[in-house]
Design a protein that fits this description.
Blueprint: E1 2-7, H1 14-22, E2 26-31, E3 34-38, H2 44-49, E4 53-64, H3 67-76, E5 84-91, H4 97-110, E6 122-129, E7 132-141, H5 145-148, H6 165-174, E8 182-185, H7 192-199, E9 203-208, H8 211-223, E10 228-232, E11 245-251, H9 256-259, H10 265-279, E12 280-290, H11 295-301, E13 304-314, E14 317-325
Parallel strand pairs: 5-6, 8-9, 8-11, 9-10, 11-12
Antiparallel strand pairs: 1-3, 1-4, 2-3, 4-7, 6-7, 12-14, 13-14
Helix pairs in contact: 1-6, 3-4, 6-7
Length: 326
């Protein structure tokens, strides 16, 4: 089964990495903001997990980005005999979306398909990227408004500087965690990462040295009916046994306010990384979010760095998201 993922433009690398972390398949083509993969089956649940993808389509045909070629391609695709509507998305320069929609709609109507723009039973989507047009049947349209509804300021407990839900969800997905597996966040703050992990069905455990943050995390998780186990503890001395968690994702502390909890911020980071390595299962992934380069500390702790991503926040802050494996 061939799928095309229409990726978000929020980051150059994170959307692609998020898809590859949770879908098992073979990449067959890549154009600007579109990733095409062959998979054995499509799991709708996995598609709904994605935070940095707009749509997932089952590819029916790929052609040159010319109206004549698009018309011919639409003449040959096979779809269920239900009412359809056509939507096209132009990525970068190319044909006008409205012209492509009209061309595909005309080809399908001539073949006897019922065109229903108001209440279609099937949505045909055309992705126009670089010099190609990818035509397919829409499988999933990601409802990005659900992330906006969980913005930090809308939660019961708010603290400035925390991750936005889309970034938190992507960070969780980058671990590749399966539902019911155990995800741990040793610097849980107000619980944004735990919230996104819990909403996809993971078992979540979090901790923080600040009891106010743990209380705030509980308020937020309870508000969204996410069950959790929460601890007030120092990330340098975790009350967890060796190799007991399936994944770790955490936003490492930064700034003057946290450095006083240890001899230095660097010492806190180094010791916490040792503890994360200890509690993580062999072969499992951790996603570490930092505000300064920490590759040397990660390597010294004994992790293997698999990926590095930059997430722009504002002109004076770019987060580094590092995917590591034990």
């Amino acid at each position: 089964m061939r799928l095309a993922f229409e990726l978000s433009g929020e980051s150059k690398s994170i959307p692609r990495a998020e898809v590859l972390a949770i879908f098992r398949g073979v990449v067959v083509r890549e154009v600007e903001r579109v990733l095409v993969m062959d998979v054995e089956i499509y799991d709708q649940t996995l598609g709904n997990r994605l935070a940095m993808t707009h749509t997932v389509i089952e590819v029916k045909n790929v052609c040159e980005q010319r109206l004549a070629s698009i018309y011919q391609a639409a003449q040959s695709i096979e779809l269920p005999r239900v009412s359809v509507a056509v939507r096209a998305k132009r990525i970068g320069h190319g044909l006008r979306s409205v012209d492509v929609e009209a061309t595909i709609g005309k080809a399908l109507a001539e073949r006897g398909y019922e065109i229903d723009l108001a209440h279609p039973q099937l949505l045909v989507r055309a992705l126009l990227s670089e010099d190609v047009c990818i035509i397919g049947k829409t499988l999933t349209m990601i409802d990005r408004s659900r992330f906006e509804s969980r913005r930090p300021r809308l939660r019961p407990y708010f603290y400035p500087g925390v991750l936005l839900p889309r970034i938190a969800r992507a960070a969780v997905n980058l671990t590749g965690i399966n539902p019911n597996a155990l995800l741990f966040d040793p610097f849980c703050g107000t619980g944004g990462l735990l919230l996104e992990a819990g909403l996809i069905g993971a078992t979540v455990v979090g901790s923080d040295i600040d009891s106010r943050m743990v209380f705030g995390t509980k308020m937020n998780l309870d508000y969204y009916d996410v069950e959790s186990a929460l601890l007030v503890q120092d990330a340098q001395r975790l009350a967890l046994r060796d190799e007991c968690v399936d994944a770790v994702t955490t936003d490492l502390p930064y700034g003057r306010s946290v450095s006083i909890r240890a001899r230095s911020l660097n010492q806190l980071t180094v010791t916490a990384l040792d503890e994360i390595l200890r509690v993580l299962k062999c072969g499992a992934r951790a996603v570490l979010i930092a505000h300064n380069p920490i590759e040397r500390e990660i390597s010294d702790a004994g992790f293997t760095i698999e990926e590095r991503h930059a997430q722009y926040v504002h002109k004076s802050l770019t987060r580094e998201i590092v995917v590591v494996r034990k």
